[in-house]
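[Archive record]
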Amino acid sequence: MSLGNDKSVLSYLGYAIGEICLVAIGILIAVALNNWNEKEKDKKQLYNILNTIHKNLENDILEIDKILEFHENTAPMYDKILSGAITKQEYLDSDNIRLPFLIMGYPEISFDKRGFNLLSRYNSNNDIAQDTLATHIVDFYTERLFEIKVDDDFRATDFKDNYNHWKNNYSWWATYLRREKFDGFIEYALNDPDYKNRVANAYFLTYDVFLPELRLFKEKAIVIIEAIEKREIE
């Protein structure tokens, strides 16, 4: 083979290698751009989820405040009954209709978990271990909702026990439920230690167990809201 032919082959090989390198670089750039686009897409998706959680927590705090206010207004009734200071006239007072039904119901709370559910699904498709805020939110919801549900279940069981006990053991139950006549219930409430025991138990489950959990939820929710707002600025 002549020198000229050798140069032609080398030139062709150099050209081919250059083309291959260009193609490889192009592929690498395309892959990098695709990865960057996917990361930006995931980042935007997470950002939208955090905004949803922000709104959910704001709504939850409003609901918690309503419940805290309700129980703050109800607390003096518990104090009067447990201290033995309650009178028959107070039970009969039409402005005090809540009093005879003090332990027969309470406002319930339903947390807005849309954002948390979105974050859980997002986490199943993406690794959020590196995002401390996202992992903190998951831990917050998992722990707080569990604790509140446990305490709320205790209250529901207590309510059910009161309901069934009165229904099955007292002749005044029908007129009490229909709010037609409270004489039988009032006699029981003023003179039977069973009633004070039930009021004390309801007070404990509500004021010493359940409401502190709501306050803790609110406290931690405010911290998360502030962290999300800071993330938005960044």
About this structure: The chain has a mean pLDDT of 87. Residues 84 and 190 are 8 Å apart (CA to CA). The first helix runs from residue 3 to 83. The helical segments are 3-83, 88-92, 114-125, 132-169, 173-177, 183-191, 193-233.
